Structures are given as C-alpha cells and as structure tokens.
Predict the structure.
Amino acid sequence: MTDVSGTGPRMSVVIPHYNHAHLLSDALAAISRQTRRPFEVVVVDDGSTDDSVMRLQALTASMPWLRIHRHPENRGVNAACNTGLELVSGDFVLFSAADDCLSATMVEHAFAAAAAFPLTGVIFSDHAEMSTDGSCTRIVPLDLPTARRYFSADEFTRLMQTHFFYFHVSSVWFNVALLRELGGFPPGVKWHGDLLAAYAAAFERGAVYTPHAVSYVRQSPKSYGAAGSRSSAQLGVLRAWLEVTRQPGWERRRAALVAAAIWPDYRLRAVRALVEDRSYVTLRLARRLVWLSIWTKLAPVFGTGFRRWVRAARTQYRRWLLHTQ
C-alpha cells in the first residue's frame, strides 16, 4: 500500500460494525491492499457482544493506521456512522460495512476524482457484489459513460429522470463538510438513511461518477437493508423518509427528489406511505412505480439471457441519450 504523501484530498474510511468479528480481518485486509492508503480508518464498534473488540485490538499491532471507537451499547447502524462522521478529519469519507470488500484501487480512483472535483457532494461508482462466502464477485456497470464524469446538481437531477439507479452506498464517498451540514444519516430512516443522504448530497453539490472505484457488497437476504425492507417496519421507515424531506432547509433537496422521482421502495405496498404526502407524488413517480412493480414480477419468468438482452439494450440507449445531450 502506497503511503499518503504530498497534498490532496484526505480520504477517510469509517466501518460501522456490530458482531461481525469473523469478517473484520478480511475487510481490513482489503484496505491494507489498497494501491493508495486512505488518510485514516475508523472502526466504530456498536456495542458488539462477540469478541470483535479483542480482535480489533490485536489487529492494530499490524495496522497502526487503524483507530477504534466503541459504543457501550448497540445504537444502530446510522448512529455508528454518525459517530464516525464526527470522528474523522478527512475531506471525503466512505462508510464501508464489515462484510464489504474494497477493490484494490478504490481509494486511488476516488482520490483522483476528489482532487479534480473537491467541492462535489459525492463520488460514486458501479454496483459491485460478491457471494455470501466471498468466493464470487461481479460488477454491474451503471448505464453511464466508461470515463469519469462530473454531474452538476441540476445535471444529476436530469440524469435521475432518465437514467434512474439506486446508489450502492458502499461505493459512495461523501463530502465530509456537506454531510455534516445535512446532519449525517437520519436515524429514523434506518436502512434507507445512507441512501437519502447520498441523494441529498448529490442534489446539493453534484456527483462524480468514477468507474473502478467499487466496493463489493456481500449478498445476503439476512443483511440489515434486505431484511429491513421486507419487514413490517418498512412502512414507518418510508414515512420517516418523507418526514425528513419536509424539514426546514430541505426545500431544494425535496424538490429535486420529487422532480427525479426518487423513492426508496417502488413496490406497490409503499403507496400507503405516499398517499399521506401527496405532494411527493408525480406522474413520473407513478409511472416508475408501475413499471418497476411489473418488471419485478415478470423478470423471474424470463430466462437470464432475455434479461441480459433487455439490460444491454437499455444500456446502449441510455449511453446514446447521454451522448446526444
């Protein structure tokens, strides 16, 4: 791993962690293999009841760049991330779960993007996934140009209108000063809090797409986000999303979210939350809800070959559309 030297943006990594002792060494090893070392790495242990803290303390002997902070009791992922946000002194921060795995050049590519666009709200990359045991990985490219590109706040709104995608927040670097202005990750939005913060930051100061700066997310139906989205608590979380957007100071961000039809759950059951805040609903959002609900039901019926053909055709069309704009 190359030492940090000279001037340039300081890239911080925060790992919120709870009872994943068996995954810590792999996650931290991926950071130690970076072609460019992050400015700092902070693990926030959220009151783990396993031997996580003992393992972390043992790892500091070989990883002197590692800092540990411990919550005395479990306070939740967003609280752990917000504690990390308070602790870091870098310019951009990545929140990487203990079961994520950074690609070897992630920090290097993100650093270059941050140096070129130091005022951007976020730096983001393609979706990257790995199997539960970590043996298989794949990258799912977004329908964007294959070169780095900055989108202003207005451009990003238009991009989401025609090229909608969810952020994989494990591959999103936040502008630290801006994220603090936004108030960090809203606790009540739980498993969608990081997603809301990522969109809000992009709509505030724009976003830089940086190919190859990916972090692999471990695919598991029992993950915090996947399990939470399927739970009975989801409706309350969606209401919390809407409540945050109605806060004073969020007028511009809410307008962008509405214009871009950004919503964390496009299943029809989520409509129950939307009907309570009808000013959030637009024709674009209604169309997207219907289309994604239908596609989610029908996609499994078709073979993988057909689904790949549809995605490839969509990618070609979207890239052509961007080229003509």
Residues 304-324 form the longest helix (21 residues). The chain has one domain: 11-264.
